[in-house]
Amino acid sequence: MRVLLHFGGLGDPEGPLLDRLRALFRQPQNARFFASALAGVEAAFEIVGRAECARFLPGGLPVRDWLAAPGDPPVPAAARGSVAEGVLLHLYQLCVLQPGPGSPLAPAGGLRPVGAVGHSLGSYAAVFSALPVTGRRGYAEAAGRSVAQVTVALLRCHQVVPAAPRPDGELLRRHAALGPGAGVPAAMAAVVGPRRPVLEEAVRRSGDGPGGRVGIGLVNSPTFHVLTGATEALMRLRLAEAELFERPGARWTYLGATAPFHSPALDPAVALIGHDVDHHWQPVKGDGLTMPVYGTGTPANLQFSPHVLYEVAEQQMCRPFDWPAVVDAALAELDPDLVLDLGPGVSAAALTRSRLRESGSAARFASV
Questions:
Q1: Do residues 81 and 10 touch, judged by C-beta distance below 8 A?
Q2: Is 21 a residue whose pLDDT tops 80?
Q3: 348-359: pLDDT as tens digits
Q4: What average pLDDT does this structure show over 126-147?
Q5: CA 72 to CA 277: how far, in whole Å?
Q6: Quick one: pLDDT at residue 209?
Q7: Of all helices (H) and strands (E), which one includes residue 123?
Q8: Looking at the predicted structure, is the pLDDT value of residue 212 above 80?
Q9: Which are the contacts of 326, defined by CB distance < 8 A and separation ≥ 6?
Q10: Where is the Malonyl-CoA:ACP transacylase (MAT) domain (predicted)?
Q11: How is the chain split into domains, by residue range?
Q12: Which of 69, 97, 193, 324 has a 20 to 30 A CA-CA distance from 289?
């Protein structure tokens, strides 16, 4: 059976992701994987510099402590920022993908991967799934490198984000007047309802006012987009276009992202990430991938990329992407029998199920 591997991004896993990772961490067969992966987290802090990381992540990233905590303690506040959530996401996806008897891709299952797609940060796991890795030992070693690369990329993004000035009092007062349902302002917001041309026109009207420009970072469906930019700029847009965002059926939800992903504001991070990859690891070239992986900046097959990790970083950190276009390209070029979702979120899965129905594809969708 021809299988398209499907990896979700940051968002809303079913239940606390840390709890699911703790269960995997306690399984003896995963000891080698976690030893290598957690060493990768520590290596990333050495690469970026612990003193520099302490500026924007003062508590560090004690992932081992979180996983090894006895019982099922509450998720610590430090595990809710974008760096921690991104690292935990990648750890989970790579752990679930491991070869072995419990793998969803065990030979006995008759599933043959023919390509991979990843929603936003899930693109890193999609690329990893196409690397020529064999055996559990080799897999663990490669996973450690990949976890280090993702951790470095997330740290670099937060390193270059300028400290946001506190919005002026009048702006805060006007936004507070929207009521508690308006949410806590942040650097990204999910918008449901307006179609892309209408939303683009609203963004154009907002211009380059105080706080900078807002952009459409993610196109999830014709009526579901994610805006990205400085928090103050998003607040001003929300207020200026109140009539649009308060229409029946419309919804504006600030996300918990601690950096404006898919925004030109993170352009400076890409050069740093590219240097890190070239200096500390062997660059991945597209012709070394074992199957097609579709980038999310455009629906292009990354097998034709001269520098896969650089391109993935650029697409996930500072370029917009169109998820329906990526899914359509993968379905058209690979004609899979099954789209196998390796999680952990529900949003990307729901979006892809909807796209399968709209496209008339005969492929089934299943989650591990």
A1: no
A2: yes
A3: 999 999 999 998
A4: 96
A5: 36
A6: 65
A7: helix 123-129
A8: no
A9: 117, 294, 295, 296, 299
A10: 87-355
A11: 2-160+265-367, 169-258
A12: 324
Structure tokens at 234: 């998003």
- Whether the per-residue pLDDT at 107 is higher than 70: the answer is no
CATH domain 2-160+265-367 topology: Malonyl-Coenzyme A Acyl Carrier Protein; domain 2 (3.40.366)
Query: What is the C-alpha end-to-end distance of the chain, expressed in Å?
Result: 16
Q: Cα–Cα distance between 220 and 82 in angstroms, integer?
A: 20
Calculate mean pLDDT across residues 129-152.
96
Q: Whole-angstrom Cα distance, residue 178 to residue 239?
A: 9
Tell me the pLDDT band of 164, cut-offs 50, 70 and 90: low
pLDDT band at 78 (very low <50, low <70, confident <90, very high): confident
Measured distance CA(135)–CA(167) in Å, rounded = 53
Do the domains at 2-160+265-367 and 169-258 have one common CATH topology? no
Q: How far is CA 289 from CA 7, 11, 130, 283, in A?
A: 17, 27, 5, 12
pLDDT digits (tens, 9 = 90+) for 296-319: 667 889 999 999 999 999 998 999
Q: What sign for the dihedral angle of Cα 202, 204, 205, 210?
A: positive
The residue behind tokens 């109140």 is: 242
Token pair listed for 259: 């950096």
Q: Is there a contact between 337 and 1 (Cβ–Cβ < 8 Å)? A: yes
Q: What is the DSSP letter of 282?
A: P
> Which pLDDT score, from 0 to 100, does residue 298 have?
74
CA atoms within 13 A on the CB side of 179: 4
Kindly report the pTM of this predicted structure.
Answer: 0.94
For residue 217, report the phi and psi dihedrals to the nearest 5 degrees: -85, -40
| Residue in the structure block whose two tokens are 């969803």 | 104
Dihedral of CA 15/16/17/23: which sign?
negative
**CB environment 91-114: b (16+ within 10 A), e (fewer):** bbbbbbbbeeeebbbeeeeebebb
For residues 296 and 311, what is the distance between their CA atoms, to the nearest angstrom?
Answer: 10
Three-class secondary structure of residue 296 per DSSP: coil
Cβ-based neighbour number of residue 53 at 10 Å: 21
Are 189 and 226 a contacting pair, CB within 8 Å? yes
Tokens of 109: 């299952």
